[in-house]
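1st attempt posting a full record on here, be nice pls
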Amino acid sequence: MRLLPRLCLTIAPLALAAGCADNAMVLKSQVDRFQQQQVAMTRQYQELQMRAAALDRDNQELSAALAQVRQQSKIVEDQLAGTRDQLRSVTTQLAQAKAERVAAEKQVETVNASMKRQSGTTITPNSSLPQALPNLNLPPGCVRRDGDVIRIALPARELFEPGTAQLRPNAAGLIVQTGSELLRLYPEQMIGVEGYTDSEPMLAGRWRSAHELSMAHAMTVYDLLISRTQLRPNQLFVCGHGGNHPMASNATAEGREMNRRVELVVYPEKRQ
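the predicted structure (as tokens):
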């Protein structure tokens, strides 16, 4: 009977020790699981940080691109506004030029009629001009037949200072030589002194319209022919055509240069 209490006292510590061992293993398993979860969460956190950094870079790049697009859009808007202003200005100048052209044409008609009355010229029809063109010392294309008339085009660049009716140093010799040759070949024919310009709008200055400038060019040549050759007022008449009747397209600089000219036009009609 004394052995039972002793046996109980021996078994109780062993059971307690076994229970502690089981608890330690459970705790260690839980710690290991927590550590694995912590590692996984750390890895996930790092991945999220990397994604956040990449999104931040993308956002900065998009913001920079958006700012550049806005700047370019502002430049385009400014350019468009400037183009609209230029278009309005050109439209206004064109309307003004048309009005001046109508007024100048009426003025030219009045001047021509007055000059014919003053010179007492009577024009008699005659279509007997020779078919062969005169051999003048001028660039190719300056002498041409136009129906019943012969046209000698003197380029304005060789006659006048730009934008003026002032003769260049060698212009008088060219005009006198051409006029004298025409008098020799066509001593009885009526000769028109006709000024032409291009279609460009006139710049602010002395001339109100292209017709006025072309008339001034023609009158300068007329005055020189009367004073330096044997051509007489009753054999000549003057007119300014402005930008009408171009020889070439006004779309190019070369064409506009060809259109700026003074033509000496030999008509089949004879003076009386």
